Automatic annotation (TrEMBL):
It is a multi-pass membrane protein. The lineage of its organism: Bacteria, Bacillati, Actinomycetota, Actinomycetes, Pseudonocardiales. This is Dicarboxylate/amino acid:cation symporter. Keywords: Cell membrane, Membrane, Transmembrane, Transmembrane helix, Transport. It is found in: Cell membrane. InterPro entries: Na-dicarboxylate_symporter, Na:dicarbo_symporter_sf. It comes from Amycolatopsis ultiminotia. The chain crosses the membrane at residues 47-70, 90-111, 163-180, 201-225, 237-259, 320-341, 347-370. Gene3D superfamilies: Sodium:dicarboxylate symporter (1.10.3860.10). Pfam families: SDF.
């Protein structure tokens, strides 16, 4: 057995990912305590290269996956079937976002992060303060969100890397291709080939995850140490607890009693996708694994091809529901503001209807700024809170993204069961977790 074959086995890969967390933290501590700036720079560069390699694929992946997904619905029936599946999928997105946001509020109130301030001498770096101020300026209102939804032209959306605009265009073009039927077949075939190429590319990048996470964690620990992590520990812990409740309580209940899928089977077959999401901090980059996990759970491949790409861009319970609730409470506590019942309702409303804003690699940021704007928190205080959160964001984002991806597999399973599109024979087959073959592709269902 070759090294590559052994390395990409789920258990070996999972051990490599977990080991990289420890190694990264250890190197970060070493760099900070020894004053080895060169080591910090190397770690930062490794992390940057890894995230850049992932982000390269995000825009073409979102477009191709959405177009292919919409046109694949033709295999499941006519327009009414497609409309019903789409409506049910979006409805379940909203239901799970509603539940997750309530959990976020409850955990936020329990931990009360930021209450009493963060202590003397605790301040964000100038770099993070500038980033936060720009973020509030760019995304701090619903007007800015709506304005940013429509591209100036087809090519500008791709050239500027605006995921939200690309998603909007993909839905329109996918619907047009669906309506044209066989006339659009050459375009659909080409787009499907593009999607397969991107999957192959991501299959190669997946293998670099342990190296990338060493850089990401090492740089975070070295740059910030515990100067900000300790004051923000309650905020970070609250995010982890909230996400873990969604991941290991809410989802298993839905799986067991609505989808009639054993939670143990779910985690056995979706484990690799969740682990890679944790390491990569990218739902979009995890999409090939997410899609294959859904298929391995018995979800009809045609429906999975539609639901998982849509979910990867708009269904994010970690980033758009749990985190904004806790983040808003944190910023309110820093500001000395006591949130009222109406503002808590506002947090839930944004989580349910604002999931589209999470499209892209900074969905957490957009979701939080839109939430705080909706409930009326002061923009300067929001910028301060964001600047502080930036310091520990890589650590938070791992748990948020893992929760996102798990939900992106759960909802298709729930809808597929209700529509008779879940194959119990495939569900109960001894299918391995979706790793990658030697050629970089996801393996077929056993």
């Amino acid at each position: 057995m070759s090294f590559v074959s052994t390395y990409t086995r789920p258990r070996v890969f999972a051990a490599a990912v977990l080991g990289s967390l420890v190694v990264g933290a250890g190197l970060g501590v070493l760099a900070r305590t020894s004053g080895a700036d060169w080591l910090t720079e190397v770690l930062d560069q490794i992390g940057t290269i890894f995230t850049t390699l992932l982000q390269i694929a995000v825009i073409p992946l979102v477009f191709a996956a959405i177009v292919v997904g919409i046109t694949s619905l033709r295999k499941l029936g006519g327009g009414r079937t497609a409309a019903r599946l789409g409506s049910k999928t979006v409805l379940w997105f909203a239901i799970t976002s509603f539940i997750a946001s309530l959990i976020g509020i409850a955990i936020g109130k329990l931990f009360d992060p930021g209450v009493g301030g963060l202590g003397p001498g605790v301040a964000a770096t100038a770099k993070n303060a500038d980033k936060a101020a720009k973020s509030v300026s760019d995304w701090g209102s619903w007007d800015a969100f709506i304005d940013g939804l429509l591209p100036q032209n087809f090519f500008s959306a791709f050239a500027e890397g605006n995921t939200l605009q690309v998603l909007f265009l993909a839905v329109l073009i996918g619907a047009a291709a669906y309506s044209l039927g066989d006339k659009a077949k050459p375009f659909v075939d080409f787009t499907n080939s593009v999607f397969e190429i991107i999957q192959r590319y991501l299959g190669w990048i997946v293998r670099l995850a342990p190296i990338g996470i060493i850089g990401l964690i090492g740089a975070a620990v070295s740059n910030y140490g515990d100067a900000l992590f300790r004051p923000l520990f309650s905020t970070t812990l609250a995010v982890y607890v909230g996400c873990l409740l969604v991941l290991f309580v809410v989802y298993p209940i839905l799986l067991q009693f609505v989808a009639r899928v054993s939670p143990l089977t779910f985690f056995a077959k979706a484990g690799t996708a969740i682990q890679f999401a944790f390491a990569s901090q990218s739902s979009s980059a995890t999409l090939p694994l997410t899609r294959q996990s859904a298929v391995n759970l018995g979800v009809d491949p045609g429906y999975a091809a539609f639901a998982t790409p849509l979910a990867s861009a708009t269904k994010m319970d970690g980033c758009a529901a749990v985190f904004p609730a806790i983040g808003a409470i944190f910023i309110a506590n820093l500001s000395g503001v006591s949130l009222g019942f109406g503002q808590y309702v506002g947090i839930v409303v944004v989580a349910v209807i604002g999931a589209l804003a999470t499209a892209g690699t900074t969905g957490w940021l957009t979701a939080l700024t839109l939430t705080t704007a909706f409930i009326g928190l002061d923009a300067k205080q929001v910028a301060l809170g964001l600047a502080l959160i930036y310091s520990v964001n890589p650590i938070m984002d791992m748990m948020r993204t893992a929760t996102n991806v798990a939900g992106q597999i759960v909802v298709p399973a729930v809808v597929a069961r209700s529509e008779g599109l879940l194959d119990d024979e495939v569900l109960h087959a001894h299918t391995s977790r979706p790793a990658h073959n030697d050629d970089g592709t996801a393996p077929a269902t056993a």
